[in-house]
Design brief:
This protein is α/β, with parallel strands linked by helices and about 350 residues long. The strands form three sheets. The protein has a six-stranded mixed beta sheet, sandwiched between helices. It has a two-stranded antiparallel ribbon with strand order 1-9. It contains eight helices and ten strands. α2 crosses α4 and α2 crosses α8. It starts with a strand and ends in a 5-residue tail after the last helix. The chain has a single domain, classed as Aminopeptidase (3-Layer(aba) Sandwich). The protein binds zinc ion. Zinc ion binds next to loops.
Length: about 350
């Protein structure tokens, strides 16, 4: 993903080597299309005084530690982008963990004709009382850091937070959600090919392969009456840094940003959320483009480890993963109430 703009004064003063790299990847606003089918679209920060009173849903004790163990195991596989040994081992790892919880994993494997690369999206469905579904997603691929023209872009990269954290979080949320009786169907999706093949973002021309495909397939199936609608989408990307800071991602649907902020207030996690407000292109963008309300829980802007060799488990914390799990579990009933129950 890539950042678009900063509303934080003084960001330039705080530039690290990594952040200056991030700014070089900055893309103009035209990269993400506004959500034209929803009148909700508004790229200004929410009013943090307008909090919805939500009951805090705390994640089971030890969830963060178990997620952290997944992150370490995934990083031990090395780089995990298409064509690497770690990539195929990771698919089996994800599959194995979900199967151990009694969940049936769907694999969607395809070869991109232009890139001649094979990608795989993985997903599991937790049936609800209605077919309308809420998608909770991450990306499992890691940034390719070899073969780039600039030698600075070639280094050993294991993507602990960037790739690993969202994947680990979904693996641990799966049994928790499966044990509940959700009203909406929940689909957990592990996207492949989120990262740009070019070092730069280039308006996602060579990125977001998995989410673009997923949304296109969904739209086709919806038109044919083979699938019911996706009511909302929640994306987790870089959610486990020690000094966790989930920015207010400004392309995300305002109502969902309000729900995220309200969940942070309910759980007492305000310190980890919305100190900055900035847009980021990510796997939620294809969903927003077709009018699906979406929110990105992302720790991009100001993250000194992003796309560097320092994105390792040592710079992550099980407490941060636990916080993220609290937020997701607290948000979900309100997302269901807003986007599913009110539409039944
Ligand atoms: Zn990345």
């Amino acid at each position: 993903m890539t950042m678009r703009r900063s509303t934080t004064i003084g960001i330039v003063l705080a530039l690290t080597a990594c952040l200056s790299a991030a700014l070089r990847h900055q893309t103009p606003a035209v990269g993400a299309q506004p959500n034209t089918q929803s009148s909700e679209q508004d790229e200004t920060p929410i009013d943090q005084k307008k909090v919805i009173a939500l009951p805090a849903v705390k994640a089971p004790e030890g969830l963060g530690q178990r997620a952290m163990a997944h992150v370490r195991a995934l990083c031990d596989l090395g780089p995990r982008y298409s064509g690497t040994p770690g990539w195929s081992k990771q698919l089996d790892y994800i599959d194995g963990v979900l199967q151990s919880h009694g969940l049936k994993v769907h694999r969607d494997t395809w070869t991109d004709r232009k890139e001649l690369l094979t990608f795989t999206n993985l997903s599991v469905t937790i049936p609800g009382k209605v077919k309308d579904r809420i998608v909770i997603a991450c990306h499992h691929d890691t940034k390719c850091t070899s073969g780039h023209a600039d030698p600075e872009h070639n280094f050993h990269f294991v993507g602990a937070n960037d790739g690993g954290s969202g994947t680990a979080m979904l693996l641990e949320l799966a049994p928790v959600l499966a044990a509940t009786q959700p009203h909406a169907t929940i689909e957990l999706v592990f996207f492949d090919g989120e990262e740009s093949l070019d070092w730069r973002w280039n308006l996602a021309a060579r990125a977001l392969f998995g989410s673009k495909r997923y949304v296109k397939n969904h739209r086709d199936a919806l038109l044919l009456g083979k699938e019911s609608r996706i009511a909302a989408m929640v994306l987790l990307d870089m959610v486990g840094r020690t000094d966790l800071h989930l920015q207010e991602e400004l392309y995300s649907t305002p109502k969902l940003r309000t729900i995220l902020w309200s969940a942070a207030v309910a759980c007492g996690h305000q310190a980890s959320v919305f100190r900055r407000a900035e847009g980021a292109h990510d796997d939620h963008s294809p969903f927003l483009d077709v009018g699906i309300p979406s929110v990105d829980l992302i720790d991009l802007n100001g993250n000194p480890h992003w796309h560097t060799a320092a994105d390792t488990p040592e710079n992550m914390s099980d407490k941060s993963l636990q916080i993220t799990a609290d937020l997701v579990l607290t948000m979900l009933p309100e997302i269901e109430r807003t986007y599913v129950l009110s539409k039944d």
